[in-house]
Design the sequence.
């Protein structure tokens, strides 16, 4: 690192807070700041793969990069696909900078180390993207040169075939590991690689179109950069502090929204080092225009269900309501994903979400070997203990992450009804509700409603059974309600719609509500939006007497995105602007 | 004619009475995908030799089998696909593609040269050309998760499969299947007696042991072992037709001296009864190996009455099998 580089970087670090306060830097500056954070890390640890890749991108310290790369490879690769994607980037960012010896070491590592392909969708996307690009980089080599024992051509063909099938499945039936604030980056970096480095024009196009597709999926479900609503996979920390996860890096880098992590996540730097794709104007508009409330629907898939179901994938019906002040999102409930599912929440907008727990939700803390054996191959005796070794809260009664087969969710606009019918032999026969330290004006009304304000969102919650409060380490309270049949109704409104919380309270108390819990939970509620909502546990919900039409749920449906199931299409819409992605023909058509 | 003899001369030859103990498993305590992986995959112990890790490091190998015509070739059911392992465990080739994942069991058809069957998370595949091409062999099964797979030693294409809904039998190489027993119970392992091809045992999750005395056509609950616990492995003593060992969590190592009518729990010297696998040494009657969860391989020289630690500390070994030792030309 030269003195000038160091001076520039230190200046940038000092300026960054000011820039953030004064206004978001331009996209190119954001890219450079992400790369700079890895090229010139503030700690003094020896460079890792990401640091080497960032330095190569900047054209710096080639000798150090070569030496350090050889050291890392000599120590023995580990990390499976999490090793493959960094070294793939290094191989493509080399551009003549590495020594022959370092390049040979890198090449040889794909002969001597067998990465595990993994068991999740993000694992496979990274694995096959990396294998595809490495087979492309080293063509015409026989099986003795690859850990697979297959030739370059065979590896390329296998990887291309899987990537094409993944794109087809995603654009017809939805993503399986959908809307994950933690894992979205791995899909984006993989597609960024293909868009930048695939030589086959179709694969290159597929990669760039999938960037539009995946970014659009996030853009429409973000509020100030926060990924809102139901998620396939989320971790304990970020489900409460929604900012504190990799999606915030993407919100900031792609759209200038919110605040990046410090340092930025590993995924964002590799996204930037490859294509560094800047979203088109229409995506920027979709991501940032919250001038009008909107409802967005999308269809996703469950994770592969190896056991207990006749179909490999089941549908995930998602609803997301977004407006400037708050967002509410949900799926239909159930165990759609193992361990880390998040089925619904309310998220309210805050000026600076760092350290803020701006969300509210409930769940049944479900833990069972059946759930794990549906999705995993563990021997039964080490299923739960194996999961708990890495997902500490899985078998905890206090947890705030995870789906339950005993939870059913119905959302209409900004009203949510959640019903529970918990099996008596369930490990934890109660529900947990997360009530944040950042809620204000929390009032437990004699009517049974709880009223509160989160930012400019007025929130009314009606637990259907008695409850107690338990403290949460780090702040906030856990609503604890130990009943097998249970439920909660949540109605949210904007502060601007009412004179004050009392006015909101009066409006809520005027709304007709009938419910019964035994033998089966059932609710009939006339919402603030003047719609009669009827929901009986295990039955199709009714809106004004009409059943919810799950059979015709769109792949994407709403004011910004539109795609029929099985179409291999996505139409982005903003005002008169249109972008049509046709994955069958691999075409992108823009119009205004 | 001369070239035929040349081919024969180049084939590795089994050496009478010598075996290598192959095992598959991991040292993956607290491992998650992407983390640093301690030595895992294939471990083997040659006759009179020491344990060693062979080939690549791989966190997910469930089972393996060897080619009876050429025991130097071992096929392993792995996370990355079906592995063809040769050169004393050191040379690996993935024979399958992206259409299968997390393989669960593998069986070589001794009566059909080149036929390999494996089960995986979503079915069964068969190859009749040594793994060059694969066909589906589970289309007749409603539920496809098949943890256990064996082939009748008497007839080509007669298969026993253990899935989440019981034991299923096919007489036509997997084209059609019928329920053979343990209905509704997850089956974890199936074995055929080497002494009596009509005597079979199946180990299950929670349902105990099931046996068949009509060549695998039907299975009935043994009622004597492991009900309510999970049984993972079955071994028939090649030296004694009536001696059988079963491994499981809870029972530990259970040995029967009367073809499964009664069982004795033989765990003296084992640190726990969380046991994955068990194997009789065909070269030395009375010697048995077993693996204890996240502990080690243990050996007994008195048919399991007492045990002592043998090797692979910290490991969880899911399968063990003695493979005839071959001389490499």
Sequence:
């Amino acid at each position: 690192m030269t003195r000038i580089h160091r001076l520039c970087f230190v200046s940038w670090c000092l300026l960054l807070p000011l820039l953030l306060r004064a206004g978001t830097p331009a996209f190119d500056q954001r890219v450079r700041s992400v790369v700079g954070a890895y090229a010139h890390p503030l700690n003094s640890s020896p460079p890792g793969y990401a640091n080497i890749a960032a330095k190569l991108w900047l054209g710096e310290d080639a000798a150090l990069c070569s030496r350090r790369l050889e050291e890392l490879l000599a120590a023995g690769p580990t990390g499976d696909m999490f090793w493959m994607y960094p070294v793939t980037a290094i191989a493509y960012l080399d551009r003549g900078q590495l020594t022959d010896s370092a390049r040979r070491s890198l090449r040889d590592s794909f002969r001597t180390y067998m990465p595990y392909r993994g068991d999740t969708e993000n694992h496979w996307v990274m694995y096959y993207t990396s294998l595809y690009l490495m087979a492309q980089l080293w063509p015409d080599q026989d099986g003795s040169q690859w850990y697979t024992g297959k030739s370059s051509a065979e590896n390329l063909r296998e990887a291309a075939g899987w990537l094409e099938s993944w794109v087809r499945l995603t654009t017809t039936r939805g993503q399986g590991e959908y809307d994950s604030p933690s894992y979205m980056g791995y899909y984006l970096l993989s597609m960024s690689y293909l868009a930048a480095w695939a030589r086959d024009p179709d694969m290159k196009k597929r990669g760039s179109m999938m960037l539009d597709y995946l970014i659009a999926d996030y853009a429409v479900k973000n509020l100030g950069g926060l990924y809102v609503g139901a998620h396939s996979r989320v971790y304990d920390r970020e489900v409460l502090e929604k900012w504190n996860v990799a999606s915030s890096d993407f919100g900031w880098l792609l759209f200038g929204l919110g605040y990046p992590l410090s340092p930025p996540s590993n995924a964002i730097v590799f996204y930037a080092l490859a294509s560094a794709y800047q979203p088109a104007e229409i995506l920027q508009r979709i991501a940032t225009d919250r001038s009008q409330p909107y409802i967005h629907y999308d269809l996703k898939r469950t994770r592969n269900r190896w056991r207990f179901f006749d179909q490999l994938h089941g549908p995930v019906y998602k609803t997301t309501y977004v407006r400037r002040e708050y967002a509410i999102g949900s799926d239909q409930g159930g165990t759609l994903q193992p361990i880390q599912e998040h089925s619904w929440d309310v998220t309210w907008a805050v000026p600076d979400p760092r350290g803020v727990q701006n969300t509210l939700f409930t769940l049944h803390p479900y833990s069972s070997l059946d759930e794990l054996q549906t999705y995993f191959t563990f021997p039964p005796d080490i299923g739960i203990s194996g999961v708990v070794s890495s997902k500490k809260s899985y078998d905890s009664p206090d947890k705030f992450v995870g789906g339950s087969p005993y939870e059913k969710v119905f959302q209409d606009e900004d009203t949510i009804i959640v019903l529970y019918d918990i099996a008596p032999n369930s490990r934890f026969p109660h529900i947990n509700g997360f009530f944040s330290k950042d809620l204000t004006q929390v009032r437990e009304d004699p009517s049974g409603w709880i009223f509160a304000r989160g930012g400019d969102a007025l929130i009314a919650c009606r637990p259907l059974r008695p409850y107690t409060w338990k403290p949460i380490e780090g702040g906030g309270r856990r609503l604890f309600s130990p009943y097998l049949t249970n439920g909660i109704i949540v109605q949210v409104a904007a502060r601007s719609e009412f004179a004050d919380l009392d006015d909101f309270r009066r409006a809520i108390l005027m709304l007709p509500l009938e419910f019964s819990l035994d033998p089966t939970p059932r609710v009939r509620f006339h919402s603030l939006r003047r719609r009669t909502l009827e929901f009986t546990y295990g039955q199709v919900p009714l809106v004004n007497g009409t059943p919810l039409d799950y059979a015709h749920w769109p792949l994407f449906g709403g004011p910004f995105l539109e795609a029929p199931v099985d179409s291999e299409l996505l139409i982005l819409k903003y005002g008169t602007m249109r972008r049509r992605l046709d994955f069958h023909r691999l075409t992108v058509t823009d119009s205004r | 004619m001369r070239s035929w003899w040349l081919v024969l001369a180049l084939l590795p030859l089994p050496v009478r009475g010598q075996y290598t103990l192959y095992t598959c498993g991991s040292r993956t305590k607290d491992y998650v995908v992407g983390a640093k992986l301690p030595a895992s995959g294939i471990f083997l112990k040659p006759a009179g030799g020491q344990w060693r890790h062979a080939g690549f490091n791989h966190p997910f190998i469930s089972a393996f089998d060897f080619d009876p015509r050429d025991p130097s070739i071992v096929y392993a059911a792995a996370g990355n696909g079906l592995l063809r392992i040769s050169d004393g465990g050191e040379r690996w080739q993935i024979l399958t593609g992206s259409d299968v994942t997390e393989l669960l069991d593998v069986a070589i058809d001794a009566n059909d040269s080149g036929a390999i069957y494996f089960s995986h998370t979503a079915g069964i595949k068969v190859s009749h050309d040594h793994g060059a091409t694969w066909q589906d062999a589970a289309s007749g099964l409603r539920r496809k998760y098949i943890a256990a797979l064996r082939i009748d030693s008497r007839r080509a294409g007669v298969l026993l499969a253990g899935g989440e809904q019981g034991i299923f039998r096919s007489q036509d190489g997997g084209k059609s299947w019928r329920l053979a027993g343990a209905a509704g119970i997850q089956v974890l392992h199936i074995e055929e007696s080497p002494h009596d091809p009509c005597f079979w045992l199946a180990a299950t999750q929670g349902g105990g042991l099931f046996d068949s005395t009509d060549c695998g056509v039907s299975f009935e609950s043994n009622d004597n072992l492991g009900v309510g616990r999970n049984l993972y492995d079955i071994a028939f003593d090649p030296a004694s037709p009536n001696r059988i060992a079963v491994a499981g969590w809870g029972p530990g190592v259970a040995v029967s001296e009367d073809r499964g009518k009664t069982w004795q729990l033989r765990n003296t010297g084992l640190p726990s009864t969380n046991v994955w696998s068990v194997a009789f040494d065909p070269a030395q009657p009375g010697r048995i190996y077993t693996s204890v969860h996240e502990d080690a391989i243990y050996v007994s020289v008195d048919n399991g009455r007492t045990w002592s630690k043998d090797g692979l500390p910290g490991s969880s070994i899911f399968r063990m099998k003695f493979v005839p030792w071959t001389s490499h030309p």
Summary: Residues 25-288 of chain A form one domain. Chain A has two domains: 25-288, 294-563. The first strand of chain A starts at residue 222 and ends at 223. Chain A touches chain B at residues 78-82, 113-114, 116-120, 123-124, 128, 143, 147-150, 158-159, 161-162, 165, 304, 306-308, 310, 312, 373, 377, 379-382, 389-390 (CB under 8 Å).
